[in-house]
Design goal:
The protein is an alpha/beta fold. It is built from twelve helices and ten strands. Helix 6 runs parallel beside helix 8, helix 6 runs antiparallel to helix 9 and helix 7 packs across helix 9. The two termini are 27 Å apart.
Length: 340
């Protein structure tokens, strides 16, 4: 079964064709990252306008020599959560294709779908996740934990009560004067900490690990952002805010966020006696995060290109959760719940 999927929940414009929920036939992403880097963040209206320009060329490139009517069995599209303007671009395009071809559409929750990148068989070394599994979705707008009893049965057990991890990276990067997106920028600065000239025990900076020790499986990163701002203001007052302290702050911020993510996830894995931990979302591409997980537990992490927004996992989710509907019943849902 071949599914053509469309993803446009935020700033990327993506389409992909996946066969039987595992094999990638094609995968095309039009990124507008360079445009958003200039503005220091995503401006929703600008993202949606760019997606209007990109959506048809992306789909044409995805289909290539295939026939939409003969070779594609179903359509899938992200209906939420996300930016309303961006979602509308993908949803209305999928509805037009469904009307044109008579195909049914599988509406997809973008956040849940992130975990299904782990079922795409990228190479011969692919190891299939075992159930029950624990899924951590960690992205710009979401930090959520799910128990996956089987491949099409997800239960939410915890998530962020304020800022998501990716949001904290972005906001703190802005405070430190680093580029957008914040996650890669923070990681690049933190990597410099290993150099001997950067290490200075007399001026080590320590940040809190919010609610890391409580009994819930929730996360909180808003206070961490405030702590970074407080440290920066203190350093500026004493004229110590410089490249060295920026690197120290970036390193400690990355350590704090990844410590919280790993501690809560491993605790949940032990409580629910899972056989696999699955990561998904853009922050899952953070090398320090995966290093810490690998020292604690066996994990499954998609390649970095499948962690960030794309349509491959939208199609995979649609295959394993195949509930097609008529195009008239499909609508954009920017506030779609993730607490299933």
């Amino acid at each position: 079964m071949k599914i053509l999927a469309i993803e446009s929940s935020c700033d990327e414009t993506a389409a992909a064709i996946i066969e039987d929920g595992r094999k990638i036939i094609s995968n095309v992403v039009a990124s507008s990252a360079a445009m958003h880097e200039k503005t220091g963040g995503i401006i929703p209206e600008m993202a949606a306008r760019q997606q209007v320009v990109s959506i048809i060329p992306v789909i044409n490139e995805t289909i290539k020599n295939l026939s939409l009517s003969r070779d594609i069995d179903a359509l899938a599209v992200t209906v939420g959560p996300g930016l309303i303007g961006s979602l509308l671009v993908g949803v209305e395009t999928a509805k037009a294709l469904a009307l044109l071809t008579g195909k049914k559409i599988v509406p997809v929750n973008h956040v849940l779908a992130h975990l299904y990148a782990n079922f795409l068989e990228e190479d011969k070394n692919y190891i299939k996740p075992q159930f029950p599994a624990l899924g951590l979705v960690v992205s710009g707008g979401h930090t959520e934990l799910f128990i996956m009893e089987k491949i099409n049965n997800l239960k939410w057990i915890g998530g962020t009560i304020d800022d998501a991890a990716g949001e904290a990276f972005d906001k703190c990067a802005r405070i430190l004067g680093l580029s957008f997106p914040g996650g890669p920028a923070i990681a690049a600065e933190a990597a410099k900490y290993a150099k001997s000239e950067i290490r200075n025990p007399k001026s080590e900076i320590k940040l809190p690990r919010p609610i890391i020790g409580d009994d819930s499986f929730n996360f909180s990163f808003s206070g961490l952002k405030t702590a970074v701002l407080r440290e920066v203001n203190k350093l500026k007052e004493t004229e110590q805010f410089n490249q060295i302290t920026i690197v120290q702050l970036a390193y400690e911020l990355q350590e704090a966020i990844t410590d919280c993510l790993v501690a809560k996830t491993v605790r949940a894995a032990e409580k629910y006696k899972v056989k696999s931990i699955l990561l998904g979302g853009g922050v899952a591409a953070n090398k320090r995060l995966t290093e810490k997980f690998k020292s604690e537990f066996r994990i499954h992490v998609p390649p970095p290109s499948l962690c960030t927004d794309n349509a491959t996992y939208i199609a995979a989710f649609a295959y394993y959760n195949y509930h097609p509907v008529d195009w008239k019943k499909v609508s954009a849902q920017p506030s779609l719940e993730v607490e299933v």
